[in-house]
């Protein structure tokens, strides 16, 4: 089969397309012929050795995707050859071979059916980002209807967070540096949008939603945006820390947390067990079915164009960037 290989942890620029042996299908696993795979910033972090996982090299990146079951391993029940399925968040593309390949062996518990009414491209990039958004929204327990602020809202996790938060009945505030994307985010369900580069945005937001404040922020960005996000929280406000695309927070005053009794909590989608992943995925699919929202695809690149697809991801997409492996 053909696969994109990472030979050294020297960054995404070093991946190359090669002919490699087909995967061995172990007990409890199935062989999936990939149709579409999705890119995630974590692929780049892993390639740059900035990620906890250090898989043996050469490694095949790619955590998400949709494909057709072609062979069934020993001990597998409840799945048929020819069935189309989604690969749920697992060790695929992390500590074992990933989805930037024509074939991938997947533990059967990490597969799910493509939800009715979703296309293969909508399904391909959904699992990791919706599961992350779901954890970010639910990790604090029952959340009464409130105001949710989302940074990096145009990205995979951001769009998923907007859609799930709206389906849960919350008011959504979304940040994006691009005016055109802010308009699109309003169409996707954000009631208020702001440019994080405008230093006035926290005051404007507080004025607009007064006397309410932000109840929960989902932060994909970090950097010097985080203290501004904290400024907008109300009493007992929380921040689900998902990503840090703008790097470390340069200055942070812990006193900003004291008086409103604010809480910050890390999100780790990889901490879900396979059982928790399946349960969370069911909730995600049910919420989207209830609201009628569908995953958003930014752009689809041909299999040979993976480096261009990573360039697009680095620019800041609207939704998911995909790789077409077989139509
Ligand atoms: N903790 C977890 O379990 C977990 C799981 C999944 C993802 N993540 C992390 O969460 C973050 C977001 O993931 P994603 O898949 O949504 O990423 P993405 O699709 O690349 O989108 C991120 C968005 O953030 C904005 N952005 C990008 N770089 C920025 C910068 N330097 N400064 C300010 N804004 C920037 C862009 O929006 P605009 O151009 O519109 O501003 C972009 O569309 C990543 O760091 C990822 O590694 C963590």
Topology overview:
Layout: E1 2-5, E2 16-19, E3 29-38, H1 41-47, E4 64-72, E5 84-87, E6 103-107, E7 111-113, H2 120-124, H3 126-138, E8 147-150, H4 156-167, E9 171-175, H5 179-187, E10 192-194, H6 201-209, E11 214-219, H7 226-231, E12 233-241, H8 255-258, E13 263-266, H9 274-291, E14 297-302, H10 306-315, E15 320-324
Parallel strand pairs: 8-9, 8-11, 9-10, 11-12, 12-13, 14-15
Antiparallel strand pairs: 1-2, 3-4, 3-6, 3-15, 4-5, 5-7
Helix pairs in contact: 3-4, 3-9, 4-9
The protein binds NADP nicotinamide-adenine-dinucleotide phosphate (NAP).
The CATH architecture classification of the largest domain is Alpha-Beta Complex
What name does CATH use for the topology of the largest domain? Quinone Oxidoreductase, Chain A, domain 1
Give the tally of structural domains.
2
Uncertain spans: none
Number of helices: 10
Give the CATH level 1 class of the largest domain: Alpha Beta
Secondary structure class reads: alpha/beta
Q: Report on the biggest sheet.
A: 7 strands, mixed
**SSE run:** EEEHEEEEHHEHEHEHEHEHEHEHE
The small-molecule ligands in this entry are: NADP nicotinamide-adenine-dinucleotide phosphate
